[in-house]
Amino acid sequence: MQEFLLIVIAYLIGSIPTAVLVSKTFFGIDIRDYGSGNSGATNTFRVLGTKWGAFVMAVDILKGVLASFLYLLLPYYLTNEWDRTNFMIGLGLAAVVGHIFPVWAKFKGGKGVATLLGMVVAIQPLVALCVLGVFLLVLYLTRFVSLSSILASIAFPLFILVIFNEPEPLYRVFAIAVALLVILTHQKNISRLVQGNENKARIFKSRDRKKN
User: Fold this and answer.
1) Where are the domains of the chain?
2) What share of the chain is helix, strand, coil (3-state, %, to 5)?
3) Which DSSP letter does residue 161 get?
4) What angle do CA 189, 158, 200 make, to 5 degrees?
5) Cα separation of 149 and 113, whole Å?
6) Nearest CA to 62 among 25, 22, 92, 106?
7) Rounded distance, CA 118 to CA 62, Å?
8) Nearest 5°: CA angle at 87, between 83 and 38?
């Protein structure tokens, strides 16, 4: 019963609609009416710019971290590493579901990539740092947030299965599932990338001006 209650709380944390709150509070618009229609960091970068996109991404990552660390409220998981990892995955996934289907925003949210990253930060920080490195490198080179998210998600199971050789079976399955989920939820972005119609994020303006 306690675990179920914490799962619900994790979902409610994930449901906090960061991009919607920012867009309505500071711009008087609903971010979901612009760009791709999603209320995630990718669309915020595209519509509101670098500063607010970075802010939304940071908060959405924090949601995944906080939700995953709810296990600290149950003493049993403090001394049982195997069960703790599995429970943290459950808590993190609840937050991701909340981000994608937020109860506070009529169940219309983002794609959950940043919150997924926050979950990985809580469970395995070094892997999260590597994945974030892939994301930032691709973003710097291409300015496509969607492509950065897709390639980072593909890198995630490679780090887990090959480089770090994570022994936890559920975590290995989870890593593969994450890559598949991100690819699935970015089908429209992939189509636009192939067609050359995907919008670039408004970042690294000084670098881009030098190129021009």
Assistant:
1) 2-204
2) 80, 0, 20
3) I
4) 25
5) 7
6) 92
7) 6
8) 155
Given a contact cutoff of 8 angstroms between Cβ atoms, the answer to whether 101 and 109 are in contact is yes
| Strands (E) located in the chain | none
**Torsion from C-alpha of 83, 87, 90, 94, nearest 10 degrees:** 180
Q: pLDDT digits over 154-178, tens only?
A: 999 999 999 988 887 888 898 999 8
Give the number of other Cβ atoms within 10 Å of residue 146's Cβ. 26
Model confidence pLDDT, tens digit, residues 141-156? 998 888 998 999 999 9
* Residue 49 amino acid letter: G
CA distance 59 to 109: 14
Lookup: tokens for 191: 């189509």
> Contact, 174 vs 127, CB < 8 A?
no
Q: What are phi and psi of 11, to 5 degrees?
A: -60, -40
- Give the integer Cα–Cα distance in Å for 53 and 63: 15
Half-sphere exposure of 172 (CA within 13 A, CB side): 9
What is the crossing angle of helices 81-100 and 2-14, to 10°? Answer: 40
